[in-house]
């Protein structure tokens, strides 16, 4: 009995409190028109009216105010009086930053207020970009890039991706969509899906439809794909390496992860290489099915850094179409003996029997050293050099007569070398033990069309350096042998 009485008393008290709350909520002293949340397009006009409803015959409009608030910071807006209980404010052309909270309040009762939330934005634009690709002939991947102002808008757009095969009349919604990255993915099921004609199949045409919507409107864009073979990407290249490396050549080999590619597609390979003599990238393009490339005319004793990437030849010209970059490094072999300095690109070792049969053997070692790139106007791979001795026919270039004239000829096949070119001259013993002292000699240039009586000068493009063997070894102070 007592329990029922207490329960009835609590129920009546709760009802009275709820009625009080409802009455207070229904009878606000202020009212802001229009109420609630407004969605406006940039450039539109905004009119707001603030009113006070208390039954009072005095002029209350002077105590009304309208404010624009963001992050608890409010700014009072200019207004005009409509009557003794109402005021009005207008914004002729809304900006994005006008999307804030607007407050109508009565100064004599600060806790009495009405709010209207205004969001300002744009009607959606067509997507800035739709990029689609296939990884393995059986799937479709599309990434949507919004227009710049839509991407920055507070009115978050809703994106829907549809696809349709050119053999079908039905639009199918993308089954897997990531709203955060605007990314769509679908794959042909093992058994026919909703629409067999719309299953992803290689060498078929499709239409991709992207709709962008927000509370202010919608827009859309289509991407036609004439043939899905044009969007198949290469995920990676395998076992990229250099083999059969000599002083002048190297062979690059690599493999594809997808077995169908060499049969079905022509592929563009972009190969870049750099060296200390050519620090800027040198690009080689290939559009063939072979997974092999021979690099010719390389510089001896030089490290090469090589990179490769690939894409289907019919792919759209887009950086995203390329496979990840694979890299390899190798060093070409030397032309000169092992004692050659690091900066050489080749050389000759000229031995000479000991004088007076002492057994000592002084020799002349010649290295070709490129000048800095800024000082040359040709590729090093086009340059060649040879050594001859006037009056000597020994194929091993053994110098018997110290007075014999040594001739070093530096040539360039395209006759564009204007020099100067440098030659390093160094004295060595028979065991390739060379002195640390080296002499750098400049070879003057000789143009192809230069007027000279020398027959040897006319037979090449480049430079000639002439010295007797004795003057190089002795007068230059390079030979360290006692018998020299």
UniProtKB/TrEMBL annotation:
Keyword Signal attributed: yes
Signal peptide: 1-24
Every Fibronectin type-III domain range: 233-335
Alphabetically ordered keywords of this record: Signal
SUPFAM superfamilies: Fibronectin type III
Family matches, as InterPro entries: FN3_dom, FN3_sf, Ig-like_fold
UniProt-recorded name of the protein: Fibronectin type-III domain-containing protein
Organism of this sequence: Mizuhopecten yessoensis
């Amino acid at each position: 009995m007592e329990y029922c009485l207490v329960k009835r008393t609590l129920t009546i008290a709760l009802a009275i409190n709820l009625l009080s709350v409802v009455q207070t909520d229904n009878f606000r002293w202020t009212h802001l028109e229009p109420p609630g949340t407004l969605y406006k397009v940039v450039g539109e006009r905004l009119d707001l009216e603030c009113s006070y409803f208390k039954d009072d015959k005095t002029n209350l409009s002077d105590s009304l105010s309208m404010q624009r608030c963001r992050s608890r910071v409010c700014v009072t807006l200019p207004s005009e009086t409509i009557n003794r209980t109402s005021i009005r404010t207008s914004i002729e052309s809304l900006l994005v930053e006008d999307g804030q909270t607007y407050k109508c309040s009565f100064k004599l009762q600060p806790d009495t207020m009405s709010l209207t939330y205004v969001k300002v934005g744009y009607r959606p634009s067509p997507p800035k970009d739709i990029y689609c690709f296939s990884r393995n002939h059986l799937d479709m991947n599309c990434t949507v890039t919004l227009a710049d102002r839509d991407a920055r808008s507070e009115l978050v757009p809703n994106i829907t991706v549809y696809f349709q095969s050119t053999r079908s009349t039905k639009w199918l919604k993308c089954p897997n969509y990531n709203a955060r990255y605007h990314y769509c993915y679908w794959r042909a099921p093992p058994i026919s899906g909703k629409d067999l004609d719309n299953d992803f199949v290689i060498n078929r045409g499709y239409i991709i439809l992207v709709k962008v919507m927000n509370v202010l409107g919608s827009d859309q864009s289509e991407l036609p794909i004439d043939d899905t073979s044009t969007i198949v990407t290469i995920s990676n290249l395998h076992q990229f390496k250099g083999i059969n490396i000599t002083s002048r050549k190297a062979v690059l080999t690599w493999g594809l992860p997808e077995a169908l590619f060499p049969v079905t597609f022509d592929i563009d390979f972009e190969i870049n290489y750099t060296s200390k003599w050519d620090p800027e990238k040198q690009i080689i393009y290939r559009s063939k099915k072979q997974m092999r490339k021979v690099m010719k005319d390389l510089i001896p004793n030089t490290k090469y850094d090589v990179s490769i990437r690939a894409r289907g030849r019919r792919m759209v010209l887009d950086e995203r179409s390329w496979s990840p970059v694979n890299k390899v490094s190798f060093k070409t072999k030397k032309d000169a003996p092992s004692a050659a300095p690091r900066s050489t690109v080749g050389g000759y070792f000229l031995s000479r029997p000991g004088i007076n049969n002492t057994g000592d053997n002084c020799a002349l070692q010649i290295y070709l050293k490129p000048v800095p790139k800024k000082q040359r106007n040709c590729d090093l791979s086009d340059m060649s050099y040879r050594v001859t001795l006037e009056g000597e026919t020994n194929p091993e270039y053994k110098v018997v007569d110290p007075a014999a004239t040594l001739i070093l000829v530096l040539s360039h096949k395209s006759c564009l070398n204007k020099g100067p070119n440098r030659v390093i001259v160094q004295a060595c013993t028979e065991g390739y033990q060379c002195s640390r002292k080296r002499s750098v000699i400049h070879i003057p240039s000789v143009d192809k069309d230069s007027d000279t009586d020398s027959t040897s000068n006319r037979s090449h493009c480049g430079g000639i350096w002439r010295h007797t063997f004795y003057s190089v070894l002795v007068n230059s102070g390079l030979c360290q042998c006692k018998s020299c």
